[in-house]
Design brief:
This protein is α+β, with helices and mostly antiparallel strands. The chain has 2 helices and 4 strands.
Length: about 90
């Protein structure tokens, strides 16, 4: 992790402002969701949210089905398993 040298104060509502230059460099736009993590040393880590597969945590080829994120690879494996089960019936 590299330091930016930027310091911000928390306001009375618990908010901080991310500098425009940082948002632009990280392609963070208004209303973009950010994930919040707490590191082992107590540091707060913000990361732009990227949906991941509920089965394998891959972020590639995500399809949202009934509110759940599934990657194409796992979707194909599920389809193959379902067709195999149908053949057994």
């Amino acid at each position: 992790m590299k330091s930016t040298g930027i310091m911000r104060k928390v306001d009375e509502l618990g908010r901080i402002v991310l500098p425009k230059e940082l948002r632009k460099a990280l392609d963070i736009k208004e209303k973009d969701p950010l994930e919040i993590f707490v590191g082992e040393s107590g540091e707060i880590i913000l990361r732009k949210y990227q949906p991941a597969c509920i089965f394998c945590n891959s972020m590639d080829g995500i399809i949202t089905y009934k509110g759940h994120n599934v990657c194409r690879h796992c979707m194909e494996k599920l389809a193959h398993r379902l067709s195999a089960e149908e053949e057994d019936d």
